[in-house]
Amino acid sequence: MATRKQTKSPGLSVKQKNRMPAQTFAFPSERKEPLNDARHVRNAIARFDQVEGVSDSEREAAWRRIKAAAKKFGVEVHERGWRELMRGGKTGS
Fold first, then answer.
1. Does the structure show a pLDDT above 90 at 14?
2. By percentage, how much of the chain surpasses pLDDT 70?
3. Fewer Cβ atoms within 10 Å of its own Cβ: the N or the C terminal residue of the chain?
């Protein structure tokens, strides 16, 4: 019986993340949600409500960085603000 070869996720490794400048992340002080390409921008939007331990002002700044990266990489953003992303999230208000 043949075994399937384990394949690694196409995400960034810890080493790659550590090499990235802090401003490349939506949440730079936590180094969470990299914004280095369209796929990561879409992922940052999808996971926005899962980031814990950040203030509303940090979320506001992260949202500005996400919108700028979305524009740069041609990602459509339908939400008007970050609070729309918090609906139903575990940290939502």
1. no
2. 82
3. N
Measured in degrees and rounded to the nearest 5, phi and psi for residue 34 equal -65, 150
* Structure confidence by residue, pLDDT tens digits, 59-78: 999 999 999 999 999 999 99
Specify burial of residue 74 (Cβ count, 10 A radius: 0-12, 13-18, 19+).
exposed
- Residue 55 inside a domain? The answer is yes
- Exposure pattern of 18-33 as b/e (b: 16+ CB <10 Å)? eeeeeebbbbbeeebb
Distance between CA 37 and CA 51 in Å, rounded? 19
Is the separation of the CB atoms in 33 and 43 below 8 Å?
yes
Within a domain: 10: no
Is residue 71 assigned to a domain?
Answer: yes
Q: How many domains does the chain have?
A: 1
Q: Cα separation of 26 and 34, whole Å?
A: 6
Domain assignment present for residue 7? The answer is no
Tell whether the model's pLDDT for residue 3 goes beyond 50: no
